[in-house]
Q: What sequence folds into this?
């Protein structure tokens, strides 16, 4: 039997790599019985910014003002590149 | 949408860097700013990207589109930036948010049978429009207070969206080691959010 501590690590790991079949079964079984780990699991999903179903963070990133590269920065970069070129 | 085309028709093509800036400057800047969330730093990494691109111009084989090529250079610059920033901040007096989640202290979160000492609370639904920006603020606050090594692991994974292999190659660590670092980072963030996210005290939350 996995403990909550084991399960919490495997849940974190599952965000990055695919767990083995037996790991997945053990985690699922534990989650069925354990409300605390179910909460933990959904909290981890929330913190997993780039997961496909985490629209919140991606939307929030999208909502950043659509600023362009400021003109002074553009000129500074151009001067820097000119120095390298000539 | 303004299209900057270089004047090939006139027989006077602009030199590469100038055209790059025209064609991709805004795109790269937005890309960087979405990830670094800071205009000045984003300008810097964009500049570094063009400088590297210019130096490597001969080696650009034309296999990828120019945009893809420049974006891949920018990605590396962003990673480098996050790394140096985190390294510099280790010298500051940063207090790790929770002593419970020190390098060796995950144990303190669980009892001797491996059960939660303080079971996770109900966070409600932060996707609800009212709570989203609040949650995001709490996240940024907690992220800012992460231990530098945790912050580094978390940014490399979640902010750049790179694969574990890419990151581990970059850092020269094993994937197991990286999983552990990410685990600790997430545990710290979670603990902080549980303290600071106001809607935890929501009436719906138990």
A:
């Amino acid at each position: 039997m996995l403990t909550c501590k084991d399960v919490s690590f495997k849940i974190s790991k599952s965000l990055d790599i695919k767990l083995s079949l037996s790991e997945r079964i053990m985690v699922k079984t534990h989650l069925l019985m354990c409300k605390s780990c179910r909460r933990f699991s959904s909290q981890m999903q929330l913190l997993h910014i780039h997961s496909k179903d985490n629209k919140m963070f991606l939307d929030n990133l999208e909502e950043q003002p659509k600023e362009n590269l400021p003109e002074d920065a553009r000129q500074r970069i151009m001067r820097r590149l000119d120095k390298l070129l000539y | 949408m303004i299209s900057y085309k270089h004047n090939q028709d006139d027989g006077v093509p602009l030199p590469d860097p100038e055209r790059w800036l025209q064609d991709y400057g805004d795109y790269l800047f937005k890309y960087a700013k979405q990830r670094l969330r800071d205009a000045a730093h984003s300008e810097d990494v964009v500049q570094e990207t063009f400088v590297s691109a210019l130096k490597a111009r001969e080696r650009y084989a034309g296999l990828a589109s120019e945009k893809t090529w420049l974006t891949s250079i920018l990605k590396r610059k962003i990673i480098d930036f996050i790394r140096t920033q985190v390294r510099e901040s280790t010298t500051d007096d940063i207090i790790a948010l929770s002593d419970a989640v020190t390098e060796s202290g995950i144990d303190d979160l669980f009892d001797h049978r491996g059960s939660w000492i303080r079971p996770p609370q109900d966070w409600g639904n932060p996707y609800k429009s009212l709570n989203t920006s609040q949650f995001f603020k709490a996240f940024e606050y907690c992220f800012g207070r992460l231990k530098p090594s945790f912050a580094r692991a978390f940014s490399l994974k979640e902010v750049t969206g790179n694969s574990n292999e890419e990151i581990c190659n970059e850092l020269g660590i094993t994937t197991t080691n990286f999983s552990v670092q990410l685990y600790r980072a997430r545990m710290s963030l979670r603990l902080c959010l549980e303290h600071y996210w106001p809607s935890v005290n929501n009436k719906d939350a138990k």
